[in-house]
Amino acid sequence: MIDVHYWPTPNGWKVTILLEELGMDYNIIPVDIGMGAQFEPDFLKISPNNRMPAIVDHDPADGGEPISIFESGAIMEYLADKGGQFLPKDPRGRANVMQWVHWQMANLGPMMGNANHFKNYGPTITDIEKLEYGINRFVGEVNRLSGVMDKHLAGNEYFAGDYSIADMIIVPWAMLLRRTQENTEENFPHLTRWVKQVLDRPAVKKGYKVHNEWRERKRTPEEEEKSRKILFGQTANTVNKAAQGAGE
Ligand SMILES: N[C@@H](CCC(=O)N[C@@H](CS)C(=O)NCC(=O)O)C(=O)O
Predict the structure, then answer these.
(1) Residues lining ligand 1, CB < 6 A?
(2) Does 171 share its domain with 96?
(3) Residue 224 is assigned to a structural domain of this protein
(4) Do residue 127 and residue 195 come from a single domain?
(5) C-alpha gyration radius of the chain
(6) Which atom of ligand 1 is the closest one to the Cα of 14?
(7) Best exposed site among 32, 53, 114, 135 by fewest CB in 10 Å?
(8) Do residues 140 and 95 both lie within one domain?
(9) Are 113 and 96 in a shared domain?
(10) Residue 18, CB half-sphere, CA atoms under 13 Å: how many?
(11) Residue 71 C-alpha to ligand 1 middle, in angstroms?
(12) If you take atom 2 of ligand 1, which residue's CA is the nearest one?
């Protein structure tokens, strides 16, 4: 059985989408990141970067001790290897998929995260010049990355040969581009075609819905304020204090 330490966000959906595609059994363990569960000592032992998702495979192929993994790119690679699907074994095909997996991890995810931060949470920043700089920088990057995807998909049905973990890792972010960018559908028709095609897969629909009710639950204003403090005020000290709770 595979434990998935999870909250319904784009980085969490990647993993549930792949597990559904592979038809593997899994057990969801909630990590309410808005309430600080990512700093629980037991969670930090498996995910020292205080981010979800993380997994624990209690039945690894070598028959040894459970394997725990953090970082969604590493999780996707591990699960695809374990399931023997969606990641070619030949070096050429594997490299083709993995370059897009790394592209998502290093580009689309962080840039969309920052664009969303400045555009949707930024109004609490009082220095308007700083706010504008942040919005222009990150929304501009998201626009560039959308162009990269659209151009690539103009000549390719999927990101890297057949449908693969490259598509599964990119789609949870690509489907949210409208949050930070206007006219995505008109300006990026090939990207729009691909998003629709991937979202139409039954396993993707199922993986995306896993515990969406947690996401939809309205927080009280007090909970919302607490959540912003937890998510937006982290320093090295935050992690040190939490780790001390773990007896380290
Ligand atoms: N590079 C990481 C990013 C994970 C990440 O940013 N997760 C967010 C939710 S989408 C999180 O756990 N945030 C908790 C926090 O900011 O403290 C991955 O892909 O696994």
Answers:
(1) 9-11, 33, 38, 50-53, 71-72, 105, 109, 231
(2) yes
(3) no
(4) yes
(5) 19
(6) 19
(7) 32
(8) yes
(9) yes
(10) 34
(11) 8
(12) 71
pLDDT digits (tens, 9 = 90+) for 88-128: 999 999 999 999 999 999 999 999 999 999 988 876 777 88
Q: Is 132 contained in some domain? A: yes
Asked if the structure places residue 34 within a domain, the reply is: yes
| DSSP-assigned letter for residue 128 | H
Q: Which residues contact 39 (CB under 8 A, 6 or more apart)?
A: 50, 238, 239, 242, 245
**Cα 52 to middle of ligand 1, angstroms:** 5
Residue entry with tokens 């390719």: 156
Supply the range of the domain harboring residue 46.
Answer: 2-86+206-219
Same domain, 113 and 141: yes
In what order do the strands lie in the sheet containing 54-57? 26-30, 2-6, 54-57, 67-70
Q: Which of 13-27, 146-160, 189-203, 230-244 has the lowest mean pLDDT?
A: 230-244
Q: How far apart are CA 168 and CA 163, in angstroms?
A: 8
Of all residues in the chain, what percent are helix, strand and coil, respectively (each to 5)? Answer: 65, 5, 30
